[in-house]
From TrEMBL:
EC numbers, comma separated: 2.8.4.3
Ranges of residues in domain MTTase N-terminal: 5-121
InterPro entries in UniProt: Elp3/MiaA/NifB-like_rSAM, Methylthiotransferase, Methylthiotransferase_CS, Methylthiotransferase_N, Methylthiotransferase_N_sf, MiaB_methiolase, NA-bd_OB-fold, rSAM
Keywords: 4Fe-4S, Cytoplasm, Iron, Iron-sulfur, Metal-binding, S-adenosyl-L-methionine, Transferase, tRNA processing
GO molecular function: 4 iron, 4 sulfur cluster binding; metal ion binding; tRNA-2-methylthio-N(6)-dimethylallyladenosine(37) synthase activity
Catalytic activities: N(6)-dimethylallyladenosine(37) in tRNA + (sulfur carrier)-SH + AH2 + 2 S-adenosyl-L-methionine = 2-methylsulfanyl-N(6)-dimethylallyladenosine(37) in tRNA + (sulfur carrier)-H + 5'-deoxyadenosine + L-methionine + A + S-adenosyl-L-homocysteine + 2 H(+)
The protein, known as: tRNA-2-methylthio-N(6)-dimethylallyladenosine synthase
Organism, as annotated: Labilithrix luteola
Names of the cofactor(s): [4Fe-4S] cluster
Amino acid sequence: MASSPSYLIHTFGCQMNAHDSDRMEEVLRANGWSQATSGEEADLIVLNTCSVREKAEQKLRSEVGKLAPLKAKNPGLVLAVAGCVAQQEGEKLLSRVSHLDLVIGPDNIVELPALALEQMAGAPPRTRTVFDLDAPRFLAAAPREGEAPVSAYVTTMKGCDERCSFCIVPYTRGPERYRPSDEIIAEIGRWVSAGTREITLLGQTVDSFRDPALPPPASDDPDESQFPMLLRRIASEVPGLLRLRYTSPHPRHATVALARAHAEVEILAHHVHLPVQSGSDRILKRMIRRYNRAEYTERARRLLAAQPDMTMSTDIIVGFPGETDADFEATLELVRDVGFTGAFAFKYSQRPFTPALKLPDDVAESLKSERLARLFEVVEGQTREHLAKLVGTTQRVLVEGTSKAGAKEGRAFVEGRTVRNEIVHIEQPEGRVAVGEMVEVEITRAYKHSLFGGVTASALEALPRPNERRVAPDKRRHKLPLLGTA
Ligand code: 5AD
């Protein structure tokens, strides 16, 4: 073993998992661990897993399998599975995977360094998957100046009180728990002081937020969520923040107050990712989404009306049990009707512990594939149309890093995002556009999933010369390609 123990973390799945991995790194570092340069050298390897869809879970199994030879060569290596598969399977994982040492749930991250040391000292394999229900813990990020990404995630709530019949998340992440607003705002303040310009608030149903420090809302409160209030507080109390996003809201809490916040809070993105899952009332009911198509459409339209250039993306499941051609056509119709400019779409897969297990998975795999392809075609068409309309306009782009585009021709590009969320590649004028800068860009071309443009003459005039500024970090954390399909 080296003088300080070393770790490697492999992350699968959603932004919440990426966020959890960052917190694991922080607690390990705070306890004297350092990052290993290779698996051979590591004392601890963590697979931070996802189980939201069957495919994601299969991936974990193959990754764990791949680590068996490494463990055989180095029996002192501690192999840990964290995240949703860990929470879901617990003990069972240990009995099924003989070379596994540690199974650790999302609420037990702080215990990771101690548990890993125990394993290194020869303790028997261990499972820790206990929800922190009585005293919810939100590990605060410790951003370091000069290393902070342009865009960072901040957790505002965790868990989910919905009971969507297809979804394993309430089981793997537990009931909803909220973080006090003061804590959220303090963390955002630290990010911004360290150089971050954009924050994405993170939660399984991010818009159901209630401040645990405030009295519970009256039951007849038409807007029981205090989420819009949180958005307003962040905007007024963290003046250096340039942009604010959130993911993922549940349509039930997409209230009038939320739409009003989008109209009035200047730093709020002109984009919302609002998962709909299906456009058929029959299927929505079977999914236990607790809204119908008309209600979703009304909420979506209200948000879209908050800004003249507001866009919306969504999540859709195709081939849910009992989905007929007519149900699927209703979904396509809704996609056209709302005019989503992006969608993540998935084939339904049965998940353990979910209510939909009672329903036979009766849509043929080939039909699911066909529907997925048709859905992508519609969404891609809308994305293309939307991007084409932006050619000739001027957009404010928050620069997030250098871009690989143009490298072949020996040209230097940077890339960033618009207030909605389109990716823009920008020709770098004499190295003058720094990461973290908000620049005005004239859009000259539209690609399939991104845009291209040049800094406007007046914006260029205002930029400092390269030797007049400190070098900003080129670090991106954005895993939210809200444009296009995934
Ligand atoms: N099958 C397919 N897709 C699913 N999702 C969640 N559960 C399932 C499932 N059992 C999708 C939903 C959700 C996204 C994160 O994953 O669209 O919004």
